[in-house]
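Bump. Still looking for FAD-binding oxidoreductase structure tokens.
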Amino acid sequence: MVAKKTKSAPEIKVPNKEKVEAWGMSSFSLSPVFRPETEEEIKELFVWANHTGTKVALRGGGCSYGDASTNTEGVVLDLTRFNKVLDFNLKTGVMTVQSGARIKDLWETGIENGFWPPVVSGTMMPTLGGALSMNIHGKNNFKVGTIGEHIKEFTFLTAKGDILVCSPKKNTDLFYSAISGFGMLGCFLTVQIKMKPIYAGKMKIDPVYVRNFDELFAYFEEHYKTSDYLVGWIDAFASGKSMGRGQIHKATNLKEGEDPDFPGNCLLERQHLPSRLFYLIPKKWMWILMRPFSFNLGMRLVNLAKCIASILVNNKAYYQGHAEYAFLLDYVPNWKFVYKPGSMIQYQVFIPKENAKQAFREIFTVCQERGIVNYLSVFKKHKPDPFLLTHAVDGFSMAMDFPVTKGTKEKLWPLCHEMDEIVLKHKGRFYFAKDSTLRKRVMESYFPKENLKRFYSLKKKYDPKGILQTDLYKRVFLTEN
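Sorry for the wait, here they are.
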């Protein structure tokens, strides 16, 4: 199929449609997918889209749980082939990459030279462009902020075709809005990121069992100043005085000279995730072994077993490689297939610290009352950041994985809408990288009005013809619901 050539538009061969799936498998689009390898190809596609009125969705690693990079009524621009590491200054720690480079490329390039990405997600597969569009956070958000706070400079192709250099001091407005702008203003081209020096191939990990929300919050408040990373796993099935029980993993970087094996244990072959569990079972089989437990009673037993195991190892410190600690979602390949033949969504909320404990109690309670309990809950501490459409608060987040089946979908969306009201009541926020259920009314209720006004103004300035759209953008910003 060849697109019609207009007076000024280039002639573009449009690929056949293919299935473009959300990471959680709960939604998809059938769309032509372009996979450019150069800046010139990306710019040409933008010129063509502006002249033809074609709607374009930018897509990186496809790691957003919902419809943030699908496009039912247009085309998808997949940046994963635009992925070169262009430069790495070992004196400054600044790495320059094309926006399709993955977090995997950053850490694999940096670690043998004593550097690690300052912020990583639970998987190493997002592209840096996608990570900036969603302004991802990590288990160290309370300490170092979001990934956007470690960007020195980027070049940016606006939707109308201009290439601009942006930094905290140059094109500042665009810098702080493109980061967090979920791909609606233009495309990141090259990015300079300040990497973090490390002095050991492993970190000290302290596993701590907590019996309820009170102990969970108390530990985070007491220990966050002496931690480099903190994350909590919560048993969402526990109720009453045990609600909020789970395990915390506190990680601390070793200081210079504390690791006798450094830098030898930073070699890639000693950092890559192991392919077998207990040196015997191929990890690619693990989701198959987990699948028989993928129902409420099964997951209740799995959570209980994890609690018992947490008690047994409570306060028994150990050492773990950076990739092993950081990329839990990659530890079991294709673990999401546990939810097949259904799918899953993640519902993640961010609540100010003064309201968080009560809000999470109400959320867990309403889930238990409705009979739809999430199978995996992850708890983190956060601090505010300066970006326009930020999800961060001075408080805490809870990310909750819900199975989606024929029997639960009709009840799950209303439950999410019920939880929305709890979040709004407690002045909380949501996260576009994880969202599948957000409505325009809710979005307009939690974002400051001045932020939304500024976003719409920038959208009009840099994308006057509205070519950049995704199913998420249409659902949350264009559809009255």
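The chain has a mean pLDDT of 95.

Edit: fixed formatting.
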